[in-house]
C-alpha cells in the first residue's frame, strides 16, 4: 500500500508541469528570479535584434524596464553575425 502511494506521489509531480501563459509578465518573472550569472543570448520576437545579458534574470529585468520581449536563444553571449531573419 505504501509503495502505491509513493509511486502515485512521484508520478503526479511530473504531470503538473508549469508553462508560460501569454502575455508573459516579465516584471513578475524578474521579481522572483534568482540570478545565476550564466550569460545568455536573446533576440527580439522578429529576430532582427540580438542582445547579450548577464543571465536570464537580467533579460527579464530589461524586458520589464523597457517593455521589450527579448527571449533566450542560446545560453552564452551573442556572437557577431547575421540576425536570425533578413530584416
Topology, element by element:
Elements: H1 2-15, H2 26-32, E1 40-43, E2 50-53, H3 56-66, E3 71-74
Antiparallel strand pairs: 1-2, 1-3
Number of separate helices: 3
Structural class: alpha+beta
Q: Quote the CATH topology of the domain at 22-78.
A: Wheat Germ Agglutinin (Isolectin 2), domain 1
The overall pLDDT, averaged over residues, is: 78
Q: pLDDT below 50 for ≥5 consecutive residues: which ranges?
A: 13-18
CATH architectural name of the domain at 22-78: 2-Layer Sandwich
Largest sheet: 3 strands, antiparallel
Spatial extent as radius of gyration: 18 Å
- How far apart lie the N and C ends? 61 Å
Order of helices and strands: HHEEHE
Beta-strand content estimate: 5-15%
Describe this structure in words.
By secondary structure, this protein is of the alpha+beta class. It has a domain at 22-78: Wheat Germ Agglutinin (Isolectin 2), domain 1. It is built from 3 helices and 3 strands, in the order H-H-E-E-H-E. It has helices spanning 2-15, 26-32, 56-66; strands spanning 40-43, 50-53, 71-74. A 3-stranded antiparallel sheet has the order 2-1-3. The chain is elongated. The N and C termini lie far apart (61 Å). The model is unreliable at 13-18 (pLDDT under 50).
